[in-house]
Amino acid sequence: MNYPKAVAYHEAGHAVIARLLNVETTETFSDHASGHVQTPSLSFKEQGTPAFKEALLTDMKIALAGPIAEHRHSPQIYKKSQRDGSHKEDLENIVSFAFMYFFGDKFKGTTVSTADLPPEVINLIDEVKRSAAVMVKDNWNLIKFVGDILLATGKLTQADIDSAIENVQRKSAALAC
To answer: In what order do the strands lie in the sheet with 35-38?
Structure first.
């Protein structure tokens, strides 16, 4: 099991899906034991606008993309991460976004046990998870490429991620010809 690579792929999953959804990333880093992608919450920016619910769905996809990419790389490490609470922040964000989708701001920042989730929240999370899983699967080579760069360098900027996306897309287009 390669834990540093799993962390890098997890963070690359967040970063790549964020950029493919046109969400800014200010910094992505991995120190082989943990990582972080800095993305401004779209839903926070769109609060009170008609675009709020769509922004929440985008935020959820980005939050789900990391754990999905980690699981795709290494199911054993993913299961260990679930047990030790490594995904706690991702999961809390996902649940918070889903609650805000249905109930607005009154539940923002509230921690809710997953056993107590209303069916409509569970269904929304499942639907967005399926969508995020398709995005991760369809862009897996790109996520691996960015993850490998992150593993080697420890830090990526938005420009680095965009350059990697362009590089992989250009190579894919050339192979398709």
So the answer is: 35-38, 27-30, 155-156
One-letter amino acid of 159: A
With b for 16 or more beta-carbon neighbours within 10 A and e for fewer, the 149-166 pattern comes to: bbbeeeebebebbeebbe
**Residue 29 β-bridge partners:** 36, 155
C-beta separation of 52 from 43 below 8 A = yes
Tokens representing 74 are 């290494």
In the DSSP assignment, the letter for residue 156 is E
Instruction: Provide the 8-state DSSP code for 163.
Output: H
Query: Which carries the bigger pLDDT value, residue 24 or residue 78?
Result: 24
Q: What is the overall mean pLDDT for the chain? A: 82
The answer for residues whose C-beta is within 8 angstroms of residue 166's C-beta and 6 or more apart is: none
Name the domain count of the chain.
Answer: 1
At position 151, the amino acid (one-letter code) is: L
Task: Write the pLDDT tens digit of every residue in 1-50.
Answer: 577 888 889 999 999 999 999 988 876 666 655 666 666 666 667 777 77
Q: Supply the CATH number for residue 129's domain.
A: 1.20.58.760
Residue ranges making up the domain that contains 156: 3-176
User: Rounded CA gap, 163 and 146, in Å?
Assistant: 10
Query: Which DSSP helix (H) or strand (E) runs through 9?
Result: helix 3-20
Residue 23 gets which letter from DSSP? -
